[in-house]
Amino acid sequence: MTDPTAPGDGLILETRHLTKDFRGFVAVSDVSLRVRRGTIHALIGPNGAGKTTVFNLLTKFLPPSSGAILYRGEDITRDRPAEVARKGMVRSFQVSAVFPNLTVLENVRVALQRSLGTSFHFWKSDHSLKVLHGRALELLEAVDLAGLRDTVAVELPYGRKRALEIATTLALDPEMLLLDEPTQGMGHEDVGRVVELIRRVAADRTVLMVEHNLSVVADLCHTITVLQRGSILAEGPYAEVSRNPQVLEAYIGAAE
Amino acid sequence: MSVPDGVQESRAAWRLGIITPRRKKIFFGLLVAAGLVLPHLVYPVFLMNVLCMALFASAFNLLLGYTGLLSFGHAAFLGTAGYVTGYLLKAWGLPVELGVLAGTAVATLLGWAIGALAIRRSGIYFAMITLGFAQMIYFLAVQLPFTGGEDGLQGIPQGKALGFIPLHDPYALYYFVFAVFALGFGVIYRTIHSPFGHVLRSIRENEPRALSLGYDVARYKLVAFVISAGLAGLAGSTKALVLQFVTLTDVHWHKSGEVVLMTLLGGMGTVMGPSVGALLVVAMENYLTGFGDWVTVIIGSVFVAGVLAFRRGIVGEALHLVRNFPF
Lengths: 256, 327
What we know:
The structure holds 2 protein chains of 2 kinds. Chain A has helices spanning about 50-60, 80-85, 105-115, 135-140, 160-170, 190-200, 215-220, 240, 245-255; strands at about 10-20, 25-30, 35, 40-45, 65-70, 75, 90, 175-180, 205-210, 225-230, 230-235. By secondary structure, chain A is α/β, with parallel strands linked by helices. In chain A, a hairpin with a 2-residue loop joins strand 5 and strand 6 (about 75). In chain B, strand 1 and strand 2 (about 165) form a beta hairpin. By secondary structure, chain B is mostly helical. Classes of the chains: A alpha/beta, B mainly alpha. The interface of A and B includes residues 113 and 116 of A.
């Protein structure tokens, strides 16, 4: 991995004065975020700090009230969500986002399917999708799910669902991954597994993740942005941010 | 491809093993054979009615069962196509095939217009928008002169298929209707089992996720809606030909409700469910006429009991049993 702290690293994602106002309640206020290419960037903050709203703004699930979003130098502020995904910025969701009544293999295949360009072909047999099975199994192999290929996703334990979700996201070969609390609700063992997985997939990608769990962020992420009440409180590597008295206060304050 | 063998793997193997492609072919072969023989055993007009409603319900199921959209205005497509076909055959003397095609085409266009607006909302709002449009169509059917208003459009000529097969012969008409049904059902079957159908299923399962994978969900929904409306229209046009009349009941919201009932009773999201549901409902309506107004009460009770006992519908429960049968 390239040294993320090296100066001159290109930006992949940038927001300028991003603001989201829900009828008077300012959920996100003047957030200018700079994510460098090839890094793992965390967005942390206490409950209600606006992390998920920022995520929804970045992926266009919500329109911003003001401000701009630049992805690879291109203004995507007015794009539709599917467009953003096709440009290579793919998100996951806080609540595990699998297709519950499809098999594990079908889950990944749906993501791969778009590349065939036949997704509107209602007159074609689905046997034409079999060419994708090899790649789908490779992706499942990478998250240890190949053996469960024909299991219906709803039957998977929670941690395995998250792994399936990551495999599905990776099927799009995204340049940038946005993970919304990837370890939320997981047991200790699964957390370790997912952290390893993120580290592995981030080798040739940029990852921006929302995380609640500070210990996960500590040795995984290169840069940490701390949000509080919709604004950026601090930004920098973990060592720096974790000593910031304002951050400590926000976190301890939230814990009480 | 080497896949590690595990308990789950073998379990999945038998899960897929009972319904093999070969057995599927045999099953559909038997159905076709039954369809060819049945009119000699059962009253053909009843069978044709069943086939029309089965096609209508299967088209509806493409939306409810495979895309997750509950339309509460599908009678608009059934009825509009019926009126158009009936009028063209009667007033213009068009050949049967053209009349049926024209009815289907108008329903398809109407589906596009209504669908484009309705898919902007989801859930109950989607259902209410479709219902609202269907009510407007009902109003038009009452008001416009060519529909015959309260009297309906009567005396639709059946003409000759391909120019020489007289369709007033019940057997000839039956095989014509059977061919139309097979065609329409084939289109639905193919759509369900196509790359497009798989995207629809992912939308049904988790819409935001499908969106985040780069699918323009709204466009997929619209295409599904248009296909469904067109095939509902095909069913309506054919029905007009069978009964030789179209009345306000074909555009009434009762019809939109009836198709929901058939689909849920038979099993939504299954290929055969809607047809089984249509058979049941049409049979009850036909053979229980002696009970007068009580028919609706009986059908209602069967529906409530059916949905309580078989949450997945009749076909859905049967498939579930077969797939989980321990052997």
